[in-house]
Design brief:
This protein has nine helices and 20 strands. The chain is an alpha+beta fold and about 425 residues long.
């Protein structure tokens, strides 16, 4: 079999899911058009209960914020979406084969040690179905060049198969092999991601593809009424105005800090939820500048505020692709891309002093679809190694209309983990 001079890796992550704005408060008594309001009596207390997370969700949110801001800086005026969950799965699988310094960099990025990461993400894979209609399907795969003249270490394969339930298969590392990878990823993501990789994404030195697919299809607990969807003006950061399809409803949880306002909308059985965030200032913005952690902590129910909250969320369907290599290097993962080192000696059984293993590029494709019934989002990342009073009184009227650039957070209802973070410049 052909022996390769340089070793490169490919890690492909695919995430599919849901995301979801903020606005001005208005004077009491002002009439706000829209659907009948959702009252707190329709809710269960568990919706507002904060559960203890098995991982540091603040770290995960901060990492997502940083990545979105970095990507946005390089793509001004464009929509950006990142699935930290999908990226972390791939990095965790990669980390199980890393040498100490490379592993230390990965653990610092993940915010915890690799053993804790294995335990958390392994348990997430076995989360039972609830019959809610929501889907969170996570799958992993390890593709190996069929011409390899050395073995993958058994201990590494055991972690992939036992912890990450990975599909392991040999393929030709060429256009034919990439077609097999793409068919597997498309099936795993309900065809949300059709072409995770292209032949140009691999090189003659690529020997492996570590792949994660994360599919999240969230059904709204209270769908938007289609009769309340209508054309609305959306002001882009440039000041130009376009027409979008605005879905109107009410919400029970309101957020506000110095920089932004927002609302929460739940998916069935409160398994997942969206926090939509609207900056108070018009034009472009950074997520870091909105103090999203403080905003999330500010949440109050409309009964606490003695208010009614009207919302507008644009129907959305967009797809983006960008290279994350330099961004991840700047985020502390530069060691993984060092061509002069064997960064992942625990994956391959090759003791040659000339053997090198390194990441050469990280590319992510993302797609987001939001309509009256549900939210679906897809992220594909490829790493080459290559919220009542009973007395009657007038209520404060609140409104959050996403009629200019905004932020969407797609959260896990059980752990409060940010599954997706998106900055929407134009729906």
């Amino acid at each position: 079999m052909l022996k390769k001079k340089l070793i490169q890796w490919v890690v492909v992550l695919t995430a599919v899911g849901c995301l979801g704005g903020c606005g001005e408060s208005v004077e009491p008594g002002r009439e706000i058009p829209g659907a009948p309001l959702q009252t707190e009596e329709e809710l269960t207390y568990e919706q507002m209960e904060v559960k203890e997370a098995p991982i540091n969700t603040s770290t995960l949110l901060a990492t997502n914020i940083d990545l979105v801001d970095r990507v946005s800086a390089g793509n001004p005026g464009q929509n950006v979406m990142i699935s930290g969950t999908s990226l972390n799965y791939a990095l965790a699988m990669l980390g199980n084969g890393a040498e100490p310094e490379a592993l230390q960099a990965i653990e610092a990025f993940l915010g915890q040690d690799i053993a804790s990461t294995n335990s958390y993400y392994g348990e997430l894979l076995t989360r039972p179905e609830t019959g809610s209609g929501n889907k969170l399907v996570i799958k992993n795969a390890f593709w190996v060049d069929e011409t390899l003249d050395y073995d993958v270490k058994k201990d590494y394969l055991k972690v992939l198969e036992d912890v990450y339930q990975a599909h392991v298969q040999e393929i030709p590392m060429d256009a034919k092999g990439i077609k097999k990878v793409n068919r597997w990823a498309a099936k795993a993501t309900d065809n949300m991601v059709q072409n995770a990789l292209s032949p140009q994404d691999i090189t003659e030195d690529t020997v492996s593809i570590i792949m994660n697919t994360t599919l999240l299809d969230g059904k709204w607990d209270k769908p938007f009424r289609k009769e309340n969807t209508r054309d609305v003006d959306f002001t882009m950061a440039s000041g130009d105005m376009v027409k979008v399809k605005g879905m109107h409803d009410s919400a029970y949880m309101y957020y506000e800090n110095e920089y932004a306002t927002g609302f929460r909308k739940d998916y069935k059985k409160n398994e997942y939820y969206m926090i939509a965030v609207l900056p108070k200032e018009e034009g472009d913005f950074t997520l870091a500048g909105l103090d999203l952690e403080g905003l999330v902590a500010s949440g109050k129910t409309t009964s606490e505020l003695n208010a009614e909250l009207s919302i507008m969320l644009p129907k959305t369907d967009f797809e983006v692709k960008y290279n994350l290599t330099q961004i991840l290097k700047a985020a502390g993962l530069d060691r993984l891309f060092d061509k002069s080192r064997n960064n992942f000696p625990e994956i391959y059984d090759n003791d040659s002093p000339d053997f090198k293993s390194y990441a050469s590029a990280v590319i992510q494709n993302d797609r987001l679809i939001i309509d009256e019934e549900s939210t679906r989002a897809a992220a594909v990342t490829s790493i080459m190694v290559d919220n009542c009073t009973t007395a009657w009184e007038e209520k404060l009227q609140l409104r959050v209309y996403l009629d200019r650039p905004y932020v969407l957070l797609l959260m896990d209802g059980e752990t409060d983990e940010p599954l997706f973070v998106a900055k929407i410049m134009k729906p």
